[in-house]
Amino acid sequence: MKLRAFFLFSALMMGQSAMAIEEPAFKVLLKTDSFEVRQYAPILIAETMVEGDMDEASNKGFRKIADYIFGNNRATTTGGSAKIAMTAPVTVEPQSEKIAMTAPVTVSSTSADLSSAKQWRVHFVMPSKYSISNIPQPNNPDVKLKEVPGKFFAVNNYTGFNTSAKIQSKTDELLAWLQQKNIKVLGSPQLSRYDPPWTLPMFRRNEIMIEVEAIQ
Fold it and tell me: Where are the alpha helices (DSSP H) in the chain?
């Protein structure tokens, strides 16, 4: 399964190699070393809920949404299918049974331990040319489209492979920085990955992101 996900992601990224990969628009409001607070513009996402450990869930979720943007969809104008450009990052976040699916990230104030999560939300940001009214609709009921309003996120960016220990360490670093800055946390940690699997570890872009209250 992991090998299939690798080749699927590779095919997607190679198909986009002739053009820049679109990323969500944001403005940096505060920066200290690897830490930032960003103000994000509203976005449209395709998301799916999956179960398992983080690696298993990431692969399952990626395959479902990649299948949707590859053409398993219904175009709103023609009624046929349409391919949707790949964007970055691919984001995975833990879900709590106590928090509704529509809530932003979910480990909540009770825990920031990503290694213990068994349910996850995986999402891709859709290209900015689409709105909820003109984007192709998923054929797979497990894939949902959702408009997300503008939000503020604290971010800890780093390179290398994503082991459970490293993800937890980077999450703890970000939470400590937010506490030091007296910035209120509104959501739980989510992991965003920007690069295809063949990227050398020192060039991989990873980010731990946590929704926070608005700052000026």
Answer: 2-15, 54-70, 164-180
ω into residue 189 within 30 of 0, thus cis?
no
In the sheet that holds 206-212, the strands lie side by side as: 26-32, 35-40, 151-158, 206-212, 190-193, 90-94, 119-125, 43-51, 144-148
CA 46 to chain centre: 10
| Alpha carbons 46 and 132: distance in angstroms, whole number | 10
In residues, how long is the chain? 216
Decide if 170 contacts 183 (C-beta within 8 A): no
pTM for the full predicted model: 0.81
3-state secondary structure of 103: coil
Question: Tokens in use for 182?
Answer: 């007296």
Query: Tokens 């198909």, residue?
Result: 15
- Residue 101 burial (CB count, 10 A): 12
Predicted confidence (pLDDT) per residue in 90-139, tens digit: 999 987 643 332 322 222 222 355 666 778 999 999 999 999 999 999 99
Tokens for 152, please give them: 């503020």
Give how far Cα 159 sits from Cα of 54, 76, 167, 178, Å: 18, 39, 11, 21
Q: Strand locations in 10-150, DSSP E?
A: 26-32, 35-40, 43-51, 73-74, 90-94, 119-125, 137-138, 144-148
| CB-based contact 8:66 (threshold 8 Å) | yes
* Bridge partners for 36 per DSSP: 31, 155
